[in-house]
Design goal:
The chain is of the alpha+beta class. 18% of the residues lie in helices and 37% in strands.
């Protein structure tokens, strides 16, 4: 399936800001599981971006808005074709051989270690888990990583309520535990923490989901977790919808947590405070065009 995504983010400041440094992670990934056909990113006020790849492989447009301004508008139009029709189409390993496979992957690609440790946003202490009356799912050595992470995904939706507004943009897991509720990014963080506690690399993914096509009020980009599955490599798990990620998902940016993969982030000088971003999102299937 080929998708056309139109994504607009509008930021307004109470008073002018200047020397505004902005990073955009909006270009969908182009790899063996996804084909990027076209992408157009525009910014107002106008600025010429410096383009590079960050340490996680995301394509970044870096902008410097020197002159005072009280608004920032970022627009994306892209056409992309996810290719992973069947995420279960891989030769699985025996559960007993999985630990060795993971060790080999970490030795061969040291950057994977970034996805084995929990930064503060995806960390929770034993005391906090006890206060929340929660016991994290454990890796079932007999069943293997794939089956265990699917069970953990179900555990997330059983223990936590999906409730918009329960958390903020980059809320920590401590806040999610306290609320016992959250949204897709919080559910992704929970699943990531569980996998990393097993010693299995896991990463955060920001992107889009086909479910937004038919939504009455399309909202914001979606988020899910990717786990390094022995024999398969990176596979996505969407705890919010209880799905293993397939070709109905468009992956954009990855990282250790939501901050690493944020579509728009930056810093500036001035006394202006940014209001909550206004986001407009439209996703079209190819046959609708």
């Amino acid at each position: 399936m080929r998708y056309r995504v139109e994504h607009r983010t509008y930021l307004h400041f109470d008073s002018p800001v200047w020397e505004h440094q902005v990073e955009l992670r909006l270009t969908p990934r182009h790899d063996a599981t996804q084909r990027l056909h076209s992408v157009d990113i525009s910014v107002s006020p106008d600025a010429k971006p410096r383009v590079y790849r960050d340490s996680f492989g995301n394509l970044v447009q870096s902008l410097s808005l020197i002159e005072p301004h009280d608004e920032l508008e970022v627009s994306l139009v892209t056409e992309v074709e996810p290719l992973r029709e069947n995420p279960f189409a891989f030769e699985s390993l025996t559960p007993a051989s999985e630990p060795a496979w993971i060790r080999d992957q970490l030795q061969q690609n040291p950057r994977l270690w970034d996805y084995t440790y929990n930064p503060e946003s995806v960390e929770a202490s034993a005391h906090e888990l006890e206060e929340a009356n929660l016991d994290l799912p454990q890796l079932d050595q007999a069943a293997g990583v794939m089956a265990s992470i699917q069970k953990a995904s179900t555990w997330v939706t059983e223990k936590f309520e999906y409730r918009p507004g329960a958390t903020q943009v980059h809320s920590t897991l401590r806040e999610v535990l306290k609320a016992r509720a959250g949204v897709c990014q919080d559910f992704a963080h929970l699943l990531i923490m569980i996998a990393r506690n097993w010693g299995v690399p896991a990463r955060y993914v920001m992107g889009y989901h086909d479910a937004e096509v038919d939504a009455e009020e399309p909202g914001a980009p979606h988020a899910w977790a990717e786990v390094l599955i022995p024999g398969a490599g990176w596979l996505g798990f969407d705890a919010t919808n209880g799905l293993v990620v397939n070709d109905s998902y468009v992956a954009v940016a990855v990282g250790r947590n939501s901050l690493d993969a944020a579509p728009v982030r930056g810093s500036f000088k001035g006394d202006g405070e940014g209001r909550e971003p206004e986001v407009e999102l439209q996703i079209l299937r190819a046959q609708q065009q």
